[in-house]
Amino acid sequence: MSSTVAPDHPWLLPASLTARPAGGRPGRSARDWAVDTIAFVGALLFWLYVSWGATLPENPLRIGLNGPSWLLDLDSALGLLSCGVLWLRRRWPVALAVAALPVAVFSVSGGVAQAFVLFSVIVHRPLSVSAPLAAGAVATGTAFNALRPDQDVGWLGTFITNVVIVALLLAWGLFVRARRQLVLSLRERAERAEAEQQLRVAQARQLERTRLAHDMHDVLAHRISLLSLHAGALEFRPDAPPAEVAKAAAVIRASAHQALSDLREVLGVLRDSDADGGAAAGEGERPQRRLADLPGLVNECRSAGMRVDVHNEVVASDQAPATIATTAYRLVQEALTNARKHAPGARVSIELNGGPGEGLTMAVSNPPPAVHPSGIPGTGTGLAGLAERVTLIGGHFRNGTTPAGDFRVQAWLPWPA
């Protein structure tokens, strides 16, 4: 992912990692204002202490005491200027750090302000930029000692003190930089993980929509083929007795009502999955079938005039997992629908056997049609959808013509013990 998470405090991060709005510099947050104010006040208090202490006969820290009066005045002016530019260090940290080097040669009252500027550079910029500036700070400290030596501590002691102070600033700044980079990296990883999770949910929803589309195909193809079969009977028997016509019309009406009910059920699940968001990720209550529903399906087809033989040797059919039972039901339903379409009048044989630990083996076969096909159009996707269903749950699927000329649909579904 290429998106960058905007940190809470962009001034603590390198400029390359700082999120900037499209048209300007990053805005200063309330915390930034608070930190800048504290830094300015601290630097100003140090400037006041040094400037005021330089006028006293006794200076406890001996800061800014030695030197001619014009140098003390210059020290005070440059120190006050250093305090003022602290408000600009977020915008030009490196430029201000470079400008502070010659100022540090003449001004000790701006030492805290100069330290804040150097610290900002260490945190904002890579070590290749901050290390030379840190070395420059040590060099300017040495030049300051040469210009205004401290007789009590000596040149070596002052040099070591400067090195220790700059080293502490560098170490602290690098620690803060590394920590902020780690925080940013963790936030980016969290955002990436959230985006990947959303992608997985979207893929799961799409998969569930595909499954619902398969259900709609299976249900409607079955119902509409029954409607076509009953309507065809009325068309070829216009002289049938009124009682038979009324019975056929009632069956057509019931089948149409059932088709609408099945369609409403499937669409209701789809609508619920859209409303629930995550329900489509496999938690939606799709219409589930049981092996016990197969006799009802067969009887429905028989009432429409189909000849169906069933050989059921399944053990503990009521214990079949919902996925296995639904897949088996849809396979038999699609096979019966295809038989009505392409082999009207042919006898259909359904064989079921197996059980827990053994798996469910099923086959639906029918001989070639004795009459011309019904002419009901097909999409050619029913068997492909069944093959996909069976494969997804770890089963095997085959369909085709046997050596005897029968068309056979066969599948094996895994059934855990």
What key attributes describe this structure?
alpha+beta; 60% helix; Sig_transdc_His_kin_sub3_dim/P; disordered N terminus; 5-stranded mixed β-sheet; histidine kinase; 417 residues; ATP-binding; HATPase_dom; single chain; transmembrane helix; 5 strands; Heat Shock Protein 90
Can you describe this structure?
This protein is 60% helix and 9% strand. The chain has 417 residues and is of the alpha+beta class. Among the domains are: 10-19 and 26-152, no CATH class; 289-417, Histidine kinase-like ATPase, C-terminal domain (Heat Shock Protein 90), CATH 3.30.565. It has a five-stranded mixed β-sheet, with helices on one face. β2 (347-355) and β3 form a beta hairpin. α5 runs antiparallel to α6 (154-236) and α9 packs antiparallel against α10.
Task: Please give a quick description of this structure.
With 417 residues, the protein is α+β, with helices and mostly antiparallel strands. It has helices at residues 30-53, 69-84, 93-106, 111-124, 127-147, 154-236, 242-276, 294-303, 322-342, 382-392; strands at residues 307-314, 347-355, 359-366, 396-401, 407-413.
